[in-house]
Specification:
- Strands 4-5-10-7-9-8 form a six-stranded mixed beta barrel. It has a two-stranded antiparallel sheet with strand order 2-11.
- Helices cover 53% and strands 18% of the residues.
- The chain has 13 helices and 13 strands.
- The longest helix is centred in the C-terminal third of the chain and has 44 residues.
- Helix 1 crosses helix 11, helix 2 packs antiparallel against helix 9 and helix 2 crosses helix 11.
C-alpha cells in the first residue's frame, strides 16, 4: 500500500505531467551530460598517457648526434659515439643519479629494420641490446608471458631475448613462444618473455631485447651504446641532473659547451608535467561546461517549485486551518522536489555510465585504438557527488518558497485565490 504522503505527491505530479516531465528532463540532461563529459575527459587522459612509453616518468634519456660547433681544432659535423665508459663515469662522478642504464640498436633506433625469423615466419623489427637495470626504468612494461631479462642474463651472456606482442603475433600467432628459438641475422636466441609497451602508439611492442653483453659479443659492436638513461636520486630533479650530465659528457667527448646539437636530452618528467597541465585544463573546461548544464537543471527545478508552491497556496491555507504543522507542509513539498530530482538524476547517471561502458566494450571487442582516446570511464564517487549536489539543490529550491508559504496565516493563504 502506498503511504498517503507519497500518494499525494504522485497525484500532484500526475496532475501536472508536462511540467513534471520538463523538470525531470532538465535534471536528467544535466547529470547525463556531466557524467558523459567526465568519462570522455578520462578517456582523453588515458589516451594521452597511453602514448607515453613504459618508462619511469622521471627518467632522462640522452642521445648523441653530430657536433654543430668546431672545438679544440676538431671540425663540426663530428659524430659523437657514447660508450659504456660514459656510464661508469656518470655512476662514479654523479651522486645525483639513481638508476643508470643504456641501450644499443642493431639497426636503426626508430625503424623496425632487422629481419627476425621463426621457422617459416619472418618480419622486420627493432633489435636492441640493453644494459643492466634497463627494465628497472622500463618498469611499466606489461609482461603478457614469461619474464624480464635480469642481471644473470647479462653476466653469463645468455642468448635469450624478450619480444614485444607485435613480434609474437607476427612470428608465432596463437602459439606459445616461450622456450622457442628465433633467428636474428642468422643467430638463434631463446624467447623468455613477451611484453606490451604502449609507447609510440604501440610501436614499442615491435622490439626484441637481449642482454647488452650478449649483443656485443654476437654482433661485434664493442662497448658502443646509443642511448643513456638515468633517473634522479631522491631529493633531486631533472634540472639538477641534466646540466651536470651534459657538462660531463661534453668534456669526455671534446664537445663545445655552446654546442646544443651534439647531445639531445629527453626529460620525461617535463613532458609529463606539460601533459598533466593540459589534461588539468581540459578537465576544468569539462567541469565548467558540465556544471553549467547542471545549473540549468537546478534553475529549472527552482522555477517549477516556486510555481508549484504558488499554485498550492490555498491548499496550504486549508491545511493550516485544519491544524497542519508548518513542517508537515514543508516536508510534503520537499519530498516532491527530492522525488523528481532523484529519479531523473539517477536515470541520467545510469544511462551515461551505461553508454560509457558500451563504448569501452566496443573498443575492446573490435580492438579499436584511437591516438588520443582510450578506455572512457567515470569516477563513480564523483558521479554520485554530482547527483547529491543536484538533489540538495532541489531540496533548497523547494524549501524556501515552501517555508515562506507555511509562515503565512490561513486566511491570507485562502485569500490568495
Amino acid at each position: 500500500m502506498i503511504p498517503d504522503g507519497l500518494q499525494e505527491i504522485l497525484y500532484s505530479l500526475q496532475r501536472n505531467k508536462l511540467r513534471t516531465a520538463l523538470t525531470a528532463f532538465g535534471v536528467f540532461w544535466g547529470i547525463f551530460m556531466l557524467v558523459l563529459l567526465l568519462g570522455a575527459g578520462t578517456g582523453l587522459k588515458n589516451g594521452i598517457e597511453k602514448g607515453f612509453s613504459s618508462d619511469l616518468r622521471n627518467s632522462i634519456w640522452v642521445n648523441a648526434f653530430t657536433t654543430a660547433v668546431p672545438y679544440k681544432g676538431l671540425a663540426l659535423g663530428r659524430r659523437i659515439q657514447l660508450t659504456e665508459s660514459d656510464l661508469e663515469a656518470i655512476r662514479r662522478e654523479m651522486p645525483e643519479v639513481d638508476l643508470i642504464t643504456a641501450e644499443n640498436p642493431l639497426g636503426s633506433a626508430r625503424q623496425a629494420d632487422i629481419r627476425v625469423t621463426y621457422e617459416q615466419n619472418s618480419g622486420s623489427f627493432g633489435v636492441f641490446g640493453v644494459a643492466k637495470g634497463y627494465f628497472e626504468i622500463k618498469r611499466y612494461q606489461e609482461y603478457r608471458m614469461g619474464r624480464r631479462l635480469n642481471n644473470l642474463d647479462d653476466d653469463e651472456r645468455r642468448k635469450v631475448v624478450v619480444i614485444g606482442t607485435r613480434v609474437k603475433d607476427r612470428l608465432f600467432g596463437d602459439l606459445n613462444p616461450l622456450g622457442e628459438q628465433i633467428s636474428v641475422n642468422g643467430v638463434s636466441f631463446k624467447v623468455v618473455g613477451v611484453f606490451y609497451d604502449s609507447g609510440w602508439e604501440g610501436r614499442m611492442s615491435e622490439r626484441v631485447y637481449m642482454p647488452l653483453s650478449t649483443f656485443q659479443k654476437t654482433f661485434g659492436v664493442g662497448e658502443n651504446i646509443s642511448i643513456i638513461a638515468v633517473t634522479p636520486a631522491p631529493g633531486y630533479t631533472g634540472d639538477d641532473v641534466v646540466p651536470k650530465i651534459l657538462t660531463l659528457l661534453k668534456q669526455r667527448h671534446n664537445i663545445a659547451p655552446s654546442d646544443r646539437r651534439a647531445l639531445y636530452v629527453t626529460d620525461l618528467a617535463k613532458q609529463s608535467a606539460r601533459v598533466s597541465s593540459t589534461i588539468n585544463a581540459i578537465n576544468m573546461f569539462i567541469w565548467f561546461v558540465g556544471l553549467g548544464t547542471l545549473m540549468a537543471g537546478i534553475v529549472g527545478i527552482s522555477n517549477i517549485m516556486i510555481i508549484t508552491v504558488k499554485e498550492r497556496t490555498v491548499e496550504i491555507g486549508i491545511r493550516k486551518a485544519l491544524g497542519a504543522r508548518p513542517w508537515s507542509i514543508i516536508s510534503t513539498i520537499l519530498l516532491e522536489a527530492v522525488l523528481v530530482t532523484a529519479a531523473a538524476g539517477y536515470a541520467g547517471l545510469v544511462l551515461a555510465v551505461g553508454l560509457l561502458e558500451s563504448i569501452n566494450a566496443v573498443m575492446v571487442k573490435f580492438n579499436i585504438s584511437l591516438r588520443y582516446f582510450n578506455q572512457p570511464e567515470v569516477d563513480f564517487s564523483m558521479a554520485i557527488l554530482a547527483l547529491g549536489i543536484l538533489i540538495s539543490a532541489g531540496v533548497l529550491a523547494g524549501f524556501f518558497p515552501a517555508w515562506k508559504a507555511a509562515r503565512i496565516s490561513p486566511i491570507e493563504a485562502m485569500r490568495a485565490q
